Sequence to fold (124 residues):
Amino acid sequence: MIPKWFHARRQTLTPQRNLFCKVTFKSHYDKDGVKLVFDRVDLEPPRISGDYSTCEDKIVVYDGPSQSDRMLATLCGNRVVTIESTGNKLLLVFSSDGDNSDRHLGYTVTFSRIDSKHYVNVFR
Ligand SMILES: [Ca+2]
Fold:
């Protein structure tokens, strides 16, 4: 069955100094999942090229509602990814340091619900 995507919305955040923003994405139905598609990321590149553990302004996504859940991705520079939750929640944490002299634009993420398969027999 092809998954259906509902309620796709878009959020754009421009980095300012010393930000620490947490956004929790939760599907309306507990059995559904959450999908994040990063369309555009323009943040300071990692200190060591290709090593995203050295990002200073960064997006970190967790597979659940808290920072103790499994980390799914760390993004900075121009890295774009698509992320799917295993449960019904994802946590996005955006943090920046005290320097925004490079004037990066931020990021755009589209979030949507991953329809669980519990309707599959109804519409067959
Ligand atoms: Ca910075």
In short: DSSP finds no helices and eight strands in the chain. The chain has one domain: 5-119.
